[in-house]
């Protein structure tokens, strides 16, 4: 964070000179922990090339609606009663700090609870959508369609200079299969979190809080389930914990549909690597990382 940005933020949020900040996480966006003399906050700095003011406002709108039913961090306004603060063409949003911990080593019961939480999020968002009219701000979210999940990632991967010719060939084959398989999924543009996993959940003394709604949008629910499958595959824990998660989720999709949603989610993630080379972990052996993702997809699609 640049010093002029920090100075402006201190002013607009009425923080004193003893206030400090520290980087918590750098991924799609940057997340900072703010310490004032008597409080803590979480500050989100959005990528300039990723989110418009309208999209961020839509994300906040969803968080405010969901907070009526689920545990979601509260958005803190600045001294001008604004939820989004613009500094040097960069957008910031301030959230309440939730005392608690991430679940570093989730158990079978944790995965079952996570499945139930995802199901609750899906059912609650369906009820919210039914209550809104066209033009509602919450509808201004990305659509996870074939273009976003397949066409755009393929283009970025084929143009990525660090990707081997062999892996580019695999990408083209996979994209053709995904194009056809996507048609097998029923047309479903319901709200999905798009990144709900244990890294985006804080466990307080009494509750679990859902974090990071910056990727939420409308798409097939199997994509949300695919987030969990990818994490379990990466940790080699799929056979151990997937049954507990899907039992907690309850609303069973056809296995083939879940596999297709998972493959689409993974291809979408692989397609981010070429344009996220400013993130240190993604700069480390990107060809090998993408190759692993492609192997996961080939396994899911039984290619």
TrEMBL record:
Signal peptide: none annotated. InterPro entries: Aminoglycoside_PTrfase, Kinase-like_dom_sf, Pseudomonas-type_ThrB. Residues 28-255 form the Aminoglycoside phosphotransferase domain. It comes from the Bacteria. Gene3D superfamilies: 3.90.1200.10, Phosphorylase Kinase, domain 1 (3.30.200.20). Pfam families: APH. One of its GO terms (molecular function) is amino acid kinase activity. Transmembrane segments: none annotated. The keyword Kinase applies. Keywords: Kinase, Transferase. Belongs to the pseudomonas-type ThrB family. This is Homoserine kinase. It comes from Alkalibacillus haloalkaliphilus.
């Amino acid at each position: 964070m640049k010093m002029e940005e920090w100075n402006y933020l201190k002013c607009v949020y009425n923080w004193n000179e003893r206030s400090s900040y520290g980087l918590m996480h750098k991924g799609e966006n940057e997340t900072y922990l703010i310490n004032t003399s008597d409080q803590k906050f979480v500050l989100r700095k959005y990528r300039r090339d990723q989110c418009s003011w309208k999209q961020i406002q839509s994300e906040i709108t969803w968080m405010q609606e969901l907070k009526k039913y689920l545990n979601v961090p509260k958005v803190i306004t600045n001294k001008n009663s604004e939820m989004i603060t613009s500094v040097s063409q960069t957008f910031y949003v301030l959230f309440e700090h939730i005392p608690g911990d991430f679940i570093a080593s989730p158990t079978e019961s944790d995965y079952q609870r996570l499945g139930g939480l995802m199901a609750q999020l899906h059912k609650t968002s369906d009820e919210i959508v039914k209550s809104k009219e066209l033009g509602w701000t919450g509808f201004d979210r990305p659509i996870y369609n074939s273009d976003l999940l397949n066409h755009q990632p393929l283009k970025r991967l084929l143009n990525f200079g660090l990707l081997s010719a062999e892996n580019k060939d695999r990408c083209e084959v996979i994209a053709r299969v995904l194009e056809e398989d996507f048609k097998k999924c029923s047309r479903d543009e319901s709200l999905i979190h798009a990144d709900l996993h244990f890294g985006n959940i804080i466990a307080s003394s009494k509750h679990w809080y859902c974090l990071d709604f910056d990727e939420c949008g409308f798409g097939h629910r199997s994509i949300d389930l695919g987030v969990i499958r990818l994490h379990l595959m990466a940790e080699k824990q799929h056979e151990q914990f997937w049954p507990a998660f899907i039992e907690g989720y309850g609303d069973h999709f056809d296995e083939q549909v879940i596999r297709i949603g998972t493959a689409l989610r993974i291809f979408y993630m692989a397609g981010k690597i070429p344009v996220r080379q400013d993130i240190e972990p993604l700069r480390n052996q990107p060809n090998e990382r993408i190759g692993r993702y492609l192997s996961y997809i080939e396994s899911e699609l039984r290619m």
